[in-house]
Amino acid sequence: MVRPKALISWSSGKDSAFALHEVRRAGEFDVVGALTTVTETFGRVSIHGVRQEILQAQCEAAGLPQRIVPIPYPCPNEIYEARMGEAVAEAVADGVTHMIFGDLFLRDIRAYREAKLAGTGITPIFPLWDRPTPELARAMMGCGLEAYLATVDMKKLSAEFAGRKFDAQLLADLPDSVDPCGENGEFHTCVVAGPMFSHRLSVSTGERVERDGYAYCDLVLEQMSSSRRRPGPIPRDLTLG
């Protein structure tokens, strides 16, 4: 039986990774690629600030061809929507009929995605929708998913949370006002291991940078060779996407 082709909207974080895992477990769709917006000025995943080399390593470990949507910095909304529209049209031409999102409960974000995909030939799928986030966070950890906090909104969390592991101790340390999955933008993550990957990524934490009310931890992919590359500096004007 031929399954419908789908893309995963891949942010480099835990929600998209766990959504991929859930969809693969269900077996309804053939996930044929990962769609990611990358700020071309810096070569980093938009909003999360994750280096593109880590993104590539994630997709290789997940067995997913990359579909990069390059955007400038800063990126006006009309440019973002135009480039995403081009990416969607290319996906439709390749026979893709569905797109998977890791959104949890923000109804305005879901409505935006549904509106933009309406009439394109691609149906949005939200496999994690409305799952209680305390239980969802524990389910992610329980299945072996490992991640680091790459970006922190300092209006909601102290900068020291940037670079911390997404684990049980983190959940215990989060203020009551912070969603356990960071769905309100409190933090964004970078996944390094889990059942959606064929192997664990060796990633180290580098410099922490504070800018425009956000704290970023530069995560660096360790090269498995005798000449291991040292972490480079994180851009001071890292895009918020």
Task: Describe the fold and architecture.
With 241 residues, the protein is α/β, with parallel strands linked by helices. It has one domain: HUPs (Rossmann fold). It contains 6 helices and 10 strands; from the N terminus they run βαββαβαβαβαβαβββ. The chain has helices spanning 14-26, 52-62, 77-93, 107-117, 133-142, 168-173; strands spanning 5-9, 30-39, 44-45, 66-71, 96-100, 123-125, 146-153, 187-193, 203-211, 214-221. Strands 1, 2, 3, 4, 5 and 6 form a 6-stranded mixed β-sheet that branches. A 4-stranded antiparallel β-sheet has the order 8-7-10-9, with helices on one face. Strand 9 (203-211) and strand 10 form a beta hairpin. The model is unreliable at 224-241 (pLDDT under 50).
What's a quick, concise take on this entry?
Helices cover 28% and strands 26% of the residues. The chain has 6 helices and 10 strands.
Written as H for each helix and E for each strand, in order along the chain, the element string is: EHEEHEHEHEHEHEEE
Radius of gyration: 17 Å
Number of strands: 10
Q: Provide a count of the helices.
A: 6
Largest sheet report: 6 strands, mixed
CATH architecture: 3-Layer(aba) Sandwich
Which band does the percent of strand residues land in? 25-35%
Helix/strand-derived class?
A: alpha/beta
Q: Could you please say which CATH topology applies here?
A: Rossmann fold
**Count of all domains:** 1
What is the approximate shape? globular
- Look at the structure and give the CATH class: Alpha Beta
Q: Fraction of residues in helices?
A: 25-40%
* Uncertain segments: 224-241
Mean pLDDT: 93
Distance between the termini: 39 Å
